[in-house]
Amino acid sequence: MSGTVYVPADAAALALGADAVAEAISREARRRGMDVCIVRNGSRGLFWIEPLVEVATSSGRIAYGPVAAADVPALFAAGLLDGCEHPLRLGRIDELPYLARQRRIVMNRVGIVDPGALDDYLAHGGGRGLDRARRLQPADIVAAVIDSGLRGRGGAAFPAGIKWQTVLAAPAGQKYIVCNADEGDSGTYSDRMLMEGDPFGLIEGMAIAGLAVGATKGYIYVRSEYPHASARLAATVAVAADWLRDQAVDFTIEVRKGAGSYVCGEETAMLESIEGRRGLVRAKPPLPAIAGLFGQPTVINNVVTLASVPAILAEGAAGCRDHGVGRSRGTLPFQLAGNIKYGGLVEVPFGHSLRELLHDFGGGSRTGRPLRAVQVGGPLGAYLSEAEFDTPLDYEAFAAIGASLGHGGIVAFDDSVDMARQARYALAFCAAESCGKCTPCRIGAVRGVELMDQLRAGDGSRIELLRSLCDTMTHGSLCAMGAMTPNPVLSALDHFPEDFA
After folding, report:
1. Which of 74, 67, 70 is nearest to 51 (CA)?
2. Residue 70, class by beta-carbon neighbours within 10 Å (0-12 exposed, 13-18 middle, 19+ buried)?
């Protein structure tokens, strides 16, 4: 008897014992004389049931989870390869409500394909965007991205096509495409899931960007805390080199590993790091699109942004533009973390409410207590109270309430949280991670921690001084790190004043 079994090699699944499960399946199959092909796919993003094992059957892929190595003999005895009934059986994976309610476009192959197999990628729609881009003029590729309404998914939400247009128009003998994969925000992991689960999609997006602006060299800057993603990318780049050459695409990619600095997620500090220097923020202008890596015009986008491009070229701009609301077009992979019952990845069009994600997908808090606060957009994002949970997930709607969607990371807290303590953490984080180049960020965060300690000790007179300090940091810092550090502090003061009494 033979069959195909899928066991994720995603870092989250590995942390929960996926390697041991894969080995147990291999061992049990040998013991029973069965010919089982084990595919190490990416994670579907349903982390509460990892390791999630899937079996290919005539009626679709049947899921079981969470599976431990000790469960494997009983699964085989029950008829695993036939999609047998078992207490761990979840049914057809694509019919699980958590997945069925999503609209996966950028993550559509993650968890489905073998991330190391180019043939599998091409069989699931990969390569069609690059094939169309090769037949277009650079300006037409840029026009398609502009028409799609795609905005940068890394935080600033700047229109990707406008950035590409600037680089296309800049005269230079050498241009670069840089993928910012320094995903350091708390509660974020969509970049990692893409790099580990569908790396060819990222490569294709970068190659299309190269054709669009006339760049022949690309860099992927991966945070050092992502060893599995780095290894996967290194192997993928080697395979993709031959593929791109066969497609007559003159584009090479190099993977660079970060040095553990949060501020290198800021684009100019990242460029400094790639060039071999300390990750200090550069003053602007000039913009990187004019004088970026090694002083040349450079497109800088994050993983999700670049991985969104192949579908735009393959399906047309309307495929992205027709989803979402207002100026927020397409979908975004939101990431649920913190005190949440069903933590995981949810890709939906812009316009859904925060409450829908927290309750319809996330199931409320893991503790069963009421959710009191949510931080959206990483450690520099605002804390939102229950009164803001009905806000549409839309860049402009969030900006209107003093918040930011950022990279789509959502960290939930129940009603036991101390928001004054959380605000202090935000300031302490900035003090530790500041590159130190500008005074408002370097000194302001340290003084902010001191003021927070005085506040928490009962000196309420420090609130106005803290607000004044936040104003200085917002308007005087060189980059977004210092300018955004006050967001969690001010939002905590505004929405949860009782915690500062």
Report:
1. 67
2. exposed
Q: Which of 272, 292, 288 shows the shortest CA–CA distance to 280? A: 272
- For residue 152, which phi and psi values (nearest 5 degrees)? -55, 130
169-217 residue pLDDT tens:
999 999 999 999 999 888 999 999 999 999 999 999 999 999 999 999 9
**CATH match for 324-414 among 3.40.50.1220, 3.40.190.10, 3.30.460.10, 3.10.20.600:** 3.10.20.600
Query: Of 106, 178, 189, nearest to 378 (Cα)?
Result: 189
What is the per-residue pLDDT across 213-262, written as a single tens digit (0 to 9) for each? 999 999 999 999 999 999 999 999 999 999 999 999 999 999 999 988 88
Does the reported pTM lie above 0.90? Answer: yes
pLDDT of residue 480: 83
Statement: residue 77 has pLDDT above 70: yes
Strand order in the sheet with 331-338: 344-349, 331-338, 409-414, 371-376, 383-385
**pLDDT at residue 124 in the model:** 97
Amino acid sitting at position 370: P
Contacts of 351 (CB under 8 A, 6+ apart): 324, 325, 328, 392, 393, 394
Which H or E element spans position 58? none
DSSP state of 106: T
Over range 463-487, report the average pLDDT: 89
Edge-to-edge strands, sheet with 176-181: 252-257, 217-222, 176-181, 298-302
CA dihedral 422, 426, 429, 433 (to 10 degrees): 170
Look at domain 419-500 and name its CATH class.
mainly alpha
Residue 30 CB-density burial (10 A; 0-12 exposed, 13-18 middle, 19+ buried): exposed
**What is the CATH number that goes with domain 2-100?**
3.40.30.10
CA distance 153 to 158: 8
For residues 462 and 301, which has the higher predicted lDDT (pLDDT)? 301
Higher pLDDT, 434 or 39: 39
CB neighbours of 80 closer than 8 A, spacing ≥ 6?
A: 3, 5, 55, 64, 86
Token output for 375: 């931080």
Question: How high is the mean pLDDT of the chain?
Answer: 94
Six token digits for residue 77: 């005895």
Q: State the SS3 of 7-29.
A: CCCCHHHHHCCHHHHHHHHHHHH
pLDDT for res 1: 62
CA distance linking residue 301 with residue 178, whole number of Å: 7
